[in-house]
Amino acid sequence: MRFLHTADWHIGRRLHGFDLTQEQQAAFKQIEQIALDEKVDGVIIAGDLYDRSLPAESSVAQLNAMLQQLNLTDKLPIYAISGNHDSATRLATGTPWFKDTHFYMHTDLKQAFTPVELPDTQLFLLPYFEPFAAQEYFHDESLRTLELAFKPIVEKMVAQFNPAKKHLLVAHFFAAGSEQTESETKLTVGGLAAIPVSMLQDFDYVALGHLHGKDALHAKKVRYSGSPVKFSLSEANQQKGIWIVDTDPFELTFKPLKPLRDVQQLTASFAELTDPTFYQPLDRDNFFGMTITDNKPIPNLLTSLRKIYPNIVSLAHTDDYDTGVGYKGESGAQIRKQDPMDLLSHFYESVAKEPLTADQRKWATDALKIANEGKQ
Amino acid sequence: MRFLHTADWHIGRRLHGFDLTQEQQAAFKQIEQIALDEKVDGVIIAGDLYDRSLPAESSVAQLNAMLQQLNLTDKLPIYAISGNHDSATRLATGTPWFKDTHFYMHTDLKQAFTPVELPDTQLFLLPYFEPFAAQEYFHDESLRTLELAFKPIVEKMVAQFNPAKKHLLVAHFFAAGSEQTESETKLTVGGLAAIPVSMLQDFDYVALGHLHGKDALHAKKVRYSGSPVKFSLSEANQQKGIWIVDTDPFELTFKPLKPLRDVQQLTASFAELTDPTFYQPLDRDNFFGMTITDNKPIPNLLTSLRKIYPNIVSLAHTDDYDTGVGYKGESGAQIRKQDPMDLLSHFYESVAKEPLTADQRKWATDALKIANEGKQ
User: Where is the Nuclease SbcCD subunit D C-terminal domain (chains A, B) (predicted)?
Assistant: First the structure.
């Protein structure tokens, strides 16, 4: 069978305050067209359909229309799960009525153990869940982490494997070994959500959501599709798209999506950025993260740049930037090279006009030690 | 055909801070049982399913479960519309999938003109709408009020009447002539939402939502079902319930609902209220609005009363109550009898230690005049 694997639509998300509704819509139209052109047997959406548990009305209207288009107009089966950004309860609205048109939306852990039975494939749809839900479901308080909870979950799924069929898993978590980018880092609750890829070997394919880059994980049969739209500057260099998954024989094909307005990082001097020979080849409607290489302040910098680049999402300076404010000319880079205890001593002396006492120095050293241990 | 007519569930509503989830659930179970016992051909819910456009997750879960129970488990058709308290957009989630199981949820004015065609009945489901929606739909800016908009709406419906069938309208507005109670007064936008009952004469029955008492309107074939639960003290004396509507021959039967905890108004002295012979016959789990007839302050009044009546939702004093604070012993009633300009003069003099100037007196008189005109 052939599936389209996408995830992390995050409908309602903004890019540094810029509305992405049109970008989302453009990506959706491409996904829809690929699904139709490739004659897929269904569209897998691996969680985080919304950006927020309480989406705005406009986001609700947008996602409702997309799902209706795919399932009711295009007659494409949908296999979806809720992600950590979704409210499982809100996303569950209407789902008991959806199955008649082959639209499966699983939002509750217990639904994961009833696979969708297709002619030659069993599709297990595992929504995002907290360890507490697994503790409740298995009546086992020892399942304190996602990894611990995952073992009985996989076992229970494997127990229902029909050996004559392929076995697909759709899930939403941080698979160990994946590399993360800025925009989803904050979504991961510490190490809680890390599942070793080795635990997924029983499946013929695992369609993951959560990380926004398709290259976050390079396991052969465990993949992130990534988001269809770039949601942060750290995703500027990612190629967004979807996977076409053929199950027999197994084959993965990446189909890129063309962004409506791309997200780009520019590092240049003010003179270069405002030089027509520099900017004329660029698509200036794109969203730009800019790093200015000048090391002296430029008056009305952002205003001047916005006349050329209307969608600047961030503006930074390279490390040798001198603000002109006389604090001994230390740059961020220089400060970061100093010993934290020296920095604290100097700061304390300049404020309190007396040196740290021996006790204070000991407390600070202990606190620093604890902080450093927490990093590892 | 036989329908059950209910409305104004207001899932998520609280009574002066008290949770009504259990009351709502108890009322729902009775409605469900009546629908099954009476073998109705469908359940009409005439708007305001939720109390808020942005219902809490727990409210979403509760309403979703109710609708699923009625439609998917009990196999009862549902004919519902959005009310002014609902977010039409949010309530529309999933609705395109519901029709296969005879669950109609109209949330958009344009849906009102496609009646649900039943063997001998046409059911027009008109969701709550703002005049602006009618202006857009009919491309007619003159439709500035609900009453103006209602004329072309009814005409368009009547144009689709199949004379061989009965014609039912489900709607959510304030029908002129209805008497209102406190809890929905604030929901009505001035006179905007008033529709004369005479405009509804083309229909064999109009199942209304919006007002919370079944006796708000006594037209023969235009009825409010009222809410299934008492939502304010002003509804204390209402008998809550639902209508069983037989269309041929036309017959209306009111089926009362038994409240889990009732809402009651008590007016008595502290001595009476704390006398076991007074309170023992009462169901003290009820919600009580209390008016204390004592005219002197009683220390720890509310605390003492709550030991006997745990669910006191409001506490008031009769008009002859003397707070003991020495402001010449004027009661609210006495103050209301005084001339507003005299009151202002006295107040100003007591605060500013000088009389109003002629200018000030004129400004106040003008302002009072404008305020009085606004009342009419």
Answer: 259-350
Angle between helices B340-352 and B358-375 (to 10 degrees): 140
The conformation of residue A11, written as its DSSP 8-state character, comes to B
Comparing CA positions, the residue from A55, A131, A126, A129 lying closest to residue A93 is A55
Q: Please name the amino acid found at residue A219.
A: A
DSSP string covering A135-187: HHHHT-TT--SHHHHHHHHHHHHHTT--TTSEEEEEEESEEET----HHHHTT
A94 touching B (Cβ < 8 Å):
yes
How close A101 comes to chain B (CA, Å)?
8
Partner A contacted by B95 (CB < 8 A): yes
Q: Please list, residue by residue across A83-114, b when 16 or more beta carbons sit within 10 angstroms of its beta carbon and e when fewer do.
A: bbbbbbbbbbbbbbbbeeebbbbbbebebbee
Q: Quote the tokens at residue A233.
A: 């500057």
Q: Which residues of A touch B103 (CB under 8 A)?
A: 97
Instruction: Give the separation between CA B200 and CA B215, rounded to whole angstroms.
Output: 18
**A95 contacts in B (CB within 8 Å)?**
94
- Tens-level pLDDT at each residue, chain A (376 residues): 999 999 999 999 999 999 999 999 999 999 999 999 999 999 999 999 999 999 999 999 999 999 999 999 999 999 999 999 999 999 999 999 999 999 999 999 999 999 999 999 999 999 999 999 999 999 999 999 888 999 999 999 999 999 999 999 999 998 875 544 555 544 444 444 578 888 899 999 999 999 999 988 888 899 999 999 999 999 999 999 999 999 999 999 999 999 999 999 999 999 999 999 999 999 999 999 999 998 888 888 999 999 999 999 999 888 766 655 545 555 666 777 778 888 888 888 877 778 888 898 899 988 888 888 765 4
> How far is Cα A337 from Cα B30, in angstroms, rounded to an integer?
72
Cis, bond preceding B196 (omega within 30 deg of 0): no
List, in order, residues 6 or more apart from B123 with CB less than 8 Å away. Answer: B42, B79, B104, B115, B116, B168, B170
Domain B2-256 CATH class label: alpha beta
Which tokens hold the place of B134?
């009618």
> What letter represents residue B332's amino acid?
G
Domain extent listing, chain B: 2-256, 262-337, 338-376
Predicted ipTM > 0.85: no
Give contacts of B53 with chain A, Cβ < 8 Å: 57
φ/ψ of residue B52, rounded to 5:
-135, 150
